[in-house]
Design goal:
The protein has three helices and three strands, in the order E-H-H-E-H-E. The chain is α/β, with parallel strands linked by helices and 88 residues long.
C-alpha cells in the first residue's frame, strides 16, 4: 500500500458480504483466504489513501447490510450502499 499511495488518490473496494460464508457464496473467489484478505485491505487502505469507498449489495441472500456498513465504518472508509438489481 505505501508504494501505491503516491499514485492513487481514491479506491473503490467491493466487500459484498459481512461473513466469509456469504462472501464465498456470492463472490466465488479462486484463492483461499480471500475474505480475510479483502477485510485486511479495507482496514489498511484508509491509512494510506485519502478517499476509500467500500460497497456492499443489499438484497444478496445471507448478507447483513448493516454489518457490512459497520465493518467499513470501523476501517474509517466510506460505505457505498448498493441495491441488488439497481444500476448506478
Amino acid at each position: 500500500m505505501p508504494e501505491l499511495a503516491p499514485y492513487v488518490d481514491s479506491l473503490s473496494i467491493s466487500l459484498n458480504a459481512d461473513t466469509e460464508a456469504a462472501y464465498l457464496q456470492h463472490c466465488r473467489p479462486k484463492l483461499k483466504g480471500s475474505y480475510q484478505a479483502v477485510n485486511e485491505f479495507i482496514k489498511l487502505a484508509p491509512q494510506f489513501i485519502s478517499q476509500v469507498s467500500v460497497s456492499a449489495i443489499d438484497g444478496l441472500e445471507g448478507v447483513n447490510i448493516e454489518r457490512c456498513k459497520l465493518i467499513v465504518n470501523q476501517a474509517n472508509a466510506n460505505f457505498k450502499h448498493r441495491i441488488l438489481g439497481a444500476l448506478g
